[in-house]
Request: fold
Amino acid sequence: MNKLSRILFLSLTLPLSCLANDNSEILIPINNMFDAMREHDSKKFSQQFTTGAILERATKTNEIKQSDLTKFAQLIDESTHYLDEQLFNISIHQSGNIASVWTPFAFYLDRKLSHCGINSFQLIKQSEQWKIHYLIDNAYQGNCQDFINKHTR
Reply:
């Protein structure tokens, strides 16, 4: 490989590797949110969101149900159950200070599979930190183990 080819190769691959490193920062509030659920820590949970953040679910009847973030955080704090959401096959798209994360999930209640579906997060970088501004999910209506197998191949 001649010198010009090496320089061209490095100039094309270096920005891609930098983007990959930046993407790990985008997942910090998402991982912290699920850690907070496992720890029953409403303060840590709430800190992962912007002021005015929106939490919604697309129902099987195609309705959108909005949840009050403060009440949801309180339920996490008061729950006596072990709450564990596992993500897989995460897709991240980012441009400047906004990012979108789409990921299948499996939710376990007291270590038993409860439900599964898709999470779609919209994040914004504020004061050098990524925050969740919008989260919508749905619950898969079929066999969750089949869903997990399909999305973890």
About this structure: The helical segments are 3-26, 28-39, 42-46, 69-78, 144-151.
